[in-house]
Amino acid sequence: MRVHCHKFSAVKTEVDGIRFDSKKEAEYYRELKLRWLSGEVIFFLRQVPFHLPGGVTYRVDFQEFWADGTVHFVDVKGMRTKEYIMKKKMVESLYPVKIEEV
Description:
Number of helices: 2
Structural class: alpha+beta
Low-confidence stretches: 2-6
Order of helices and strands: EEEHEEEHE
Oligomer: single chain
Strand order of the largest sheet: 4-5-6-7
Largest sheet: 4 strands, mixed
Number of strands: 7
Distance between the termini: 22 Å
Shape: globular
Helix content: 25-40%
C-alpha cells in the first residue's frame, strides 16, 4: 500500500494498483471486495460519471450491483463541500438515483 497527502487532510492510498483519494475510500473498496467474494455483491464499478448541464461531470465513487437485485450509488466522504452538495442534488434531480454517503 502506497500513501500520498491530499487536500482536507485526506491521504491518497493505493490498493491493488488502484489509487484512491483517501484511506477511507480505500477501506470501503476492501470491504466491497469482501462482499463481492461472499456473493453479496455481484459486481461494482468505480468512478461512474453523471453528465450535468454546462459540461460538468460528477463522478460517484462506487456503483454496486447487489445479489438481491438492488443497485447502490455510493460516495465515500470525509468532508461534504458546498460544491459536492450542489452536484449531488443536481444528479439526484436529473437521474432516478439516490446517492448514499459513507
